[in-house]
Amino acid sequence: MTEKDLLYNTILARSFSKNEQKRLGYGAFIASIFFVFTLCTIFKPYLSPLPIVESQLSVDVGLRMLRISETHKPKALSSSNYTTSQSNITSNTTNTQRLTSSEDDKLSVYNDTSLPKNHSDSFNRTTPTLISKEQVISDGNMMEETVKCKKQSRTEVCELNGDVRVHGKSATIRTAITSAFSGNTTWQMRPYARKRDSGAMNNVREWTVKLDKNAERLENANFSRCVTNHSVPAIVFSLGGYSMNNFHAFADIVVPLFTTARRFNGEVQFLVTNKNQAWINKFKEILRSLSNYDLIHIDDENETHCFPTVIVGLKIHPEYFKELTIDSSFSEYSMSDFRRFLRDAYSLRNAAVDLRRRRPRIMILSRAGSRAFTNTDEIANAAGETGFEVVVAEASTGLASFAETVNSCDVMLGVHGAGLTNMVFLPENAVVIQILPIGGFEWLAETDFGRPAKGMNLRYLEYKIAAEESSLVRKYGRDHEIVRDPSAVIKRGWMAFKSTYLVQNVTVDINRFKPLLAKAFELLQKQSIFSKNEQKRLGYGAFIASLFFVFTLCTIFKSYLNPLPTMETQLSVDTGLRILRVTETHKSQAFNSNYTTTSGASESLIIPTTQNNITSNATNTQSLTSSEDDKLSVCNDTSLPKNYLDLFNCTTPTSISNEQSVSDGNKMEETVKCKKQSRTEICELNGDVRVHGKSATILAAITSAFSGNSTWQMRPYARKGDLVAMNRVREWTVKLTQNADHLENANFSSRCVRNHSVPAIVFSLGGYTMNNFHDFTDVVVPLFTTARRFNGEVRFLVTNKNQPWINKFKEILRSLSNYELIYIDGEDETHCFTTVVVGLNRHPEYFKELTIDPSHSEYSMSDFRRFLRDTYSLRNAAVSTGESLRRRPRILIISRARSRAFTNTDEIANAAGEIGFEVVVAEANTGVASFAETVNSCDVMLGVHGAGLTNMVFLPENAVVFQILPIGGFEWLAETDFGRPAKGMNLTYLEYKIEAEESSLVRQYGRDHEVVRDPSAVAKRGWTAFKSAYLVGQNVTVDINRFKPVLAKAFELLQRQSV
Question: Where is the Glycosyltransferase 61 catalytic domain (predicted)?
Answer without folding.
Answer: 300-433, 855-961
